[in-house]
Amino acid sequence: MAAPGIVMDSNHQSNYKLSKTEKKLLRKQIKARHTLLRHEGIETVSYATQSLIVANGGLGNQVSRNQLLPVLEKCGLVDALLMPPNKPYSCVRYKTVEESKKAYDTLSGKEIVDDLGQKIILYLNFVEKAQWKELGLQALPPGLKVIEEIISSEDEKMLLESVNWTEDTENQNCLPDICESILEKWLKEGFIKHKPDQLTINQYEPGHGIPAHIDTHSAFEDEIISLSLGSEIVMDFKHPDGMTVPVMLPCRSLLVMTGESRYLWTHGITPRKFDTVQASKGHKSGIITSDVEDLTLNKRGIRTSFTFRKVRQTPCNCSYPLVCDSQMKETPASFPESDKEALQLEQDYVHRVYEEIARHFSSTRHTPWPHIVEFLKALPSGSLVADIGCGNGKYLGINNELYMIGCDHSQNLVDICRERQYQAFVCDALAVPIRSGSCDACISIAVIHHFATAERRVAALQELVRLLRPGGKALIYVWAMEQEYNKKKSKYLRENRTSQGMKEEISNDASVQELLVKQLPNVGNQDSAHSVSSINDFQDGGCNSKNVANSKLPIHTNRTSFHSQDLLVPWHFKGNPGKDKRVEPFGPLGSRDPGPVFHRYYHVFCEGELEAACRTLNNISILQSYYDQGNWCVILQKV
Asked: How far apart are CA 208 and CA 501, in angstroms?
C-alpha cells in the first residue's frame, strides 16, 4: 500500500484508491509545487531524489533551523539543510535517496509548531537541486565598526537601572557619572575620536523597529555611536544604489558610524519578532550573509540603545552633497504654475533624462507584465495596435498575430526598438501622427504619470481615444500612490527589506519608548541641541495632499512609500553619461561609486483618480478598473 505522501504514476493509481485524507494531502502537495514554480522558479520532479523542498518549513514563516533539523534527522542522515532568508520553504539533502524517500513518506502532511507557537503543516516535494543567489558583499559599509563587549554586564545593569521611563524627560537630571567615565575610557582606548555632548535613549520591544534614515548632517558631527543593552539586534544598512547589508549588533556592543556609513548609508531596524542570523556565529557581530546552509532565527528580546552624538556648531562640508542638508541645493524643480512651466518640467525631468539613461533603462525592462500580455493576446488576429510610450518595445512582439506600432519621445529608446526589428517612431504622446479612428487598440504603460498637470494628463488620455476606432479598446497603466493595497505590499516595496512603509513605520515607532536630547554635563552652547532632530522629519501627506504652486518638488527615496503625489524619483545611472545639471554625483565612494543620479518627474495616482480622469472624456465607457502591483489600471472602450 502506498504511503500518503507518494505521488504515484498512472499504473499504480489504477490499482490503489486514495483515501479522503490522502487526496487532500495530494492536492496540497500539488498546490505547493505550482506555487514554488510560479513564484520562485523551483521545479519539482515526480521521481525520488536526494533533495526535497519543504514547503512551509522556512525562516519566512518562523520555522528555525534548530526546530526543523531534528524533525528531518529522524528520517536519516541530513547532508545539508538550506534555508534562504525570508522564504517560507527550505531544501533538505539526504545522504541517500532511500532516506529522502522515507522523509517524503513520513513528513508530508506532518504538523509542527513554529517559533510563535502556531501550528503549520509541512508539504514535501522532490527536486533535482535547489540553489539561491548569495550576497557578494562580505565587508561592513565603509566607516562602520562594531566593538563587542565594550562594557561589563555590571555596567550594563547600572545603565539600565539609571533610566526612569515613567518620569517626565524634561525634568530628569543628567545621567549618572558612569556615562562620563565610560566615554572617557572609550576615548582613551581609541574606540571613539570625539567626546559626545548629546544622548538619545530608545527602548525596543520585540516587534518594534525604526524607519531607515540618515542622521541629519547639519545637526551632528561625523562620529555617531550607539550602545546596545539588554538584547542583540540586526540593523539594516542600505546604500543609495539599493545594496542592503544586515549587521548583527550583539548585546553590550558599540556601533561606531563615521564617514560613508554615517553620511550616505541609511540605517534602520525592521519591525519583527525574529531576526535571521548566522547559526554558526551565534550572537557575534558582523554581516548576516545569505549562506543558506547557515541561517536560522533568533528571537528578539527587549533592547535599549544609548546613542551618543556631538552637536555640530558649523555647517557640514562632507563629501556627500546629494544627501547633505547643509550643502544640498534647493530641489532643482518646482511644481508648475502654467502649461509652459509644465512643458519645461517634462522636458528637463522626463524627456532629457530618458534620452540619457535609455540603454541602462532598457537593460532593466525585459519582463512583460502578465495582465498586459493577457490584454494583447485576447485581441482579435489582425488588429492594429499602437503602443504610445513604447520604451524599448518589450510589448511590441508579444502577439505576432497583431500589427503593432510603437512610439516614444526618446530617440534612443526608439533606436533600441528598431534594433529589435520593431516598427517604432519618435513623437509626442499629446500629438501622435496616426489617423484618427484607425487603431483597434492602444496601450499606454507607465507614461501618463509623467505629465505634470491634470489638464495635460487628460489630454494624453484624449489622444488615446482619438486614435481608436469605435469599439476599440485602450489599456492604461500609471504608478499608484498606494504601494500597499489590500494589506499586500507591491513588488516595488517588497524589493526593499529595510523599508516598511509609512503606516508600519508610524505604528511601530509610536510604541518605542524614547528619551530624546539628553545633554551630558560640561558642554558649551547646549541650547542649540534642543532644536534639532536625530531623524530627518517626514510627513505622510496621503492622497488628499496637494502641492502648492511654486513649491519645490520633493525627491523620493527609492523603494519606499510615496508621501507626495508630485515628486522627483531618482535613477541611479550605471555608465558614463557625462556632466549634466540634472545629475548629482554622490562623491568619492571608491569601488562602490553608484554613478550619477538623474531625477524623473512623476505624478502618482490615488485610487479612483485615473478612472475619474477617464470619465471626463466623451464617447468612452470604462470596461475595467483595477490595481496591479503598485499601478492603477483602466481598460476603456470607445463608443
From this structure: 14
Q: At 473, is the pLDDT very low, low, confident or very high (cuts 50, 70, 90)?
A: very high
Q: Which runs of consecutive H residues, i.e. helices, occur in 85-152?
A: 97-107
Helices (H), strands (E): how many in the chain? 15, 31
Grid cell 541602462 is found at 360
Q: Which three cell numbers stand for residue 190?
A: 581609541
Give the CA diameter of the chain.
Answer: 89
CB atoms within 10 A of CB 285: 20
C-beta of residue 489 within 8 angstroms of C-beta of residue 629: no
Instruction: Sort 427 into a burial class: Cβ within 10 Å, 0-12 / 13-18 / 19+.
Output: middle
Crossing angle for the helix pair 65-73 and 97-107, to the nearest 10 degrees: 110
Reply yes or no on whether the pLDDT at 226 is more than 90.
yes
Q: CA-to-CA distance for 411 and 396, rounded, in angstroms?
A: 17
Distance in angstroms (rounded) separating the CA atoms of residues 625 and 609: 11
Surface-to-core class of residue 52, CB atoms within 10 Å of its CB (0-12 exposed, 13-18 middle, 19+ buried): buried
Q: pLDDT (tens digit, 9 = 90+) per residue, 323-372?
A: 787 876 545 578 888 999 999 999 999 999 999 899 889 988 888 999 99
Distance separating alpha carbons of residues 22 and 8, to the nearest angstrom: 12
Q: Are 307 and 200 in contact (CB under 8 A)?
A: yes
**Helix (H), strand (E), coil (C) string for 3-40:** CCCCCCCHHHHHHCCCCHHHHHHHHHHHHHHHHHHHHH
CB-hemisphere CA count at 13 Å for 37?
A: 12
Selection from 405, 414, 419, 423 nearest residue 358 by Cα: 414
E strand or H helix that includes residue 121: strand 119-121
| Angle of the 454-467 helix axis to the 339-346 helix axis, nearest 10 | 70
Q: How far apart are the first and last CA of the chain?
A: 64
Of the candidates 388, 429, 444, 458, the residue with the CA atom closest to the CA atom of residue 609: 458
C-alpha span between 161 and 156 (Å, rounded): 9
**413, containing H or E segment:** helix 411-419
8-state DSSP, 326? T
Among all chains, which residue has been given the C-alpha cell 563587549? Answer: 149
Q: Is 343 helix (H, G, I), strand (E, B) or coil?
A: helix
Distance CA(512)–CA(509), nearest Å, equals: 5
Closest CA relative to residue 192, chosen from 203, 184, 200, 202? 184
Q: 217, 240, 237: which is closest to 318 by C-alpha?
A: 217
Distances (CA, A) of 299 to 87, 521, 543: 17, 37, 37
Dihedral angle, C-alpha 218, 221, 223, 229, nearest 10 °: -80
CB atoms within 10 A of CB 205: 14
Is residue 606 helix, strand or coil?
coil
Read off the pLDDT of residues 530-550 as tens digits, 9 standing for 90 and up: 222 222 222 233 454 444 444
